[in-house]
Specification:
Order of helices and strands: EEEHEEEHHEEEHEEEEHEHEEEHE
Largest sheet: 9 strands, mixed
Bound molecules: pyridoxal-5'-phosphate
Number of helices: 7
Structural class: alpha+beta
Shape: globular
Strand content: 25-35%
């Protein structure tokens, strides 16, 4: 691996950004990280000003979808430190996705050093408000130029950063459509593969047309096991336990999900990862034993659900019951903002740019 080269922008765009009014996913910071896989090794790591890229019309990622990504956040504490949240888990999940999609793994230390270095350069882009963050998007795609279905030999790994505010400004409404599924056993649901998101777009569009925010997916085999939501895992707070669907191959193993489970168990809640049918959810709801439902994900952190619709059944949830979700949100946001001690060691402080070797 050759040494990292850094070429900085002549002028930063950061002073033109209003951090109090950030649309999610539209504003990109000044610099990006790139590194190429030449068929044998990762080579030419570089940081340079964000610019358009040239793509050949035969680029294999465009045709066959060998493309994966991650999503994580850096935050600025009240004391001015820059923190990454559980970056090592994102490095591991990126490589799990890479294996499933027949793509090369990225050595974890290089993945993490690249993030430290880029975020170290982009620290001024971190909105200094609780609940806001610098969204970090590592991604990898095929770069062979060839028509023909086979794994690419060459790939590019990149990281870009976007300052973001809260993802969902209000509680969300979920739609269950038994005609569509997101993932089947043996498929790629557990990978953060670009195609998973493309496949979800049409059912999500239908849900939006009906006034809902997202689809709550149910499984492909039995058409009744609750799975996950858009870009979030889902939690159901029953009177005697908290349940989130077990990740048995079709569901992304969310890092916020894992964090929420750890927070809640530590606070003494009974949290079970298990199969859960939509019929059981409806039954609990009708008995008054389903108190709250919420989604977890890096972008949203915690999103409260105020309605779930399945055929002609509408389940609605009252804000006065949203205790568990508020606990999870508060702990994660406070740890990120430095107002609560990070007893579990989830955060890692970004140091000055580190050398990649
Ligand atoms: C399909 C899907 N499920 C769940 C999640 C939540 O995962 P995490 O908490 O790691 O962001 C995401 C977001 O990454 C996602 O895209």
């Amino acid at each position: 691996m050759k040494d990292l080269t850094i070429r900085l922008a002549e002028e930063s765009r950061v002073s033109k950004v209003d951090f109090t009014n950030l649309p999610f996913g539209k504003i990109i910071s000044d610099h990006m990280f790139e590194m190429d896989f030449d068929g044998k090794n990762w080579v030419n790591p570089r940081i340079s000003p964000v610019t358009h890229m040239q793509i050949h019309p035969m680029n294999m990622a465009l045709h066959y979808g060998q493309s994966i990504f991650e999503g994580m956040k850096a935050s600025r504490t009240k004391d001015g430190a820059t923190l990454l949240f559980r970056p090592e888990l994102h490095a591991k999940r990126m490589n799990a996705s890479a294996r499933r999609m027949c793509m090369p793994e990225i050595p974890e230390d290089i993945f993490i050093k690249a993030i430290h270095t880029l975020v170290g350069i982009e620290q001024d882009w971190i909105p200094p408000y609780e609940g806001s963050a610098l969204y970090i998007r590592p991604f990898m795609f095929a770069t062979d130029d060839m028509i023909g279905v086979k794994p690419s030999d060459t790939f590019r790994f990149m990281i870009i950063c976007l300052p973001v505010g809260p993802y969902y400004p209000r509680p969300i409404k979920l739609w269950i459509d038994p005609n569509y599924t997101r993932a089947a056993m043996g498929g790629v649901g557990e990978a953060k593969a670009a195609g998973n998101y493309a496949a979800a777009m049409y059912p999500t569009k239908l849900a939006r047309e009906k006034g809902f925010d997202q689809v709550l997916w149910i499984d492909a085999r039995f058409n009744k096991l609750v799975q996950e939501v858009g870009t979030m895992n889902i939690f159901f707070v029953f009177d005697n336990e908290i349940v989130t669907p077990a990740t048995l191959g079709t569901i992304l193993k969310g890092i916020t999900r894992q964090t929420a489970i750890e927070i809640l168990r530590e606070k003494g809640y009974v949290v079970n990862e298990r199969e859960l049918t939509i019929d059981a959810v409806i039954d609990k709801y009708h008995k008054g034993e389903l108190l709250e439902v919420f989604g977890t994900g890096t972008a949203a952190v915690v999103a409260n659900v105020d309605e779930i619709r399945f055929n002609d059944i509408s389940m609605t949830f009252q804000e006065s019951n949203w205790k568990v979700s508020n606990t999870v949100r508060d702990v994660i946001n406070c740890v990120r903002f430095g107002t609560m001690p990070d007893q579990q060691g989830w955060t890692v402080q970004v140091k000055e740019p580190v050398e990649i070797s």
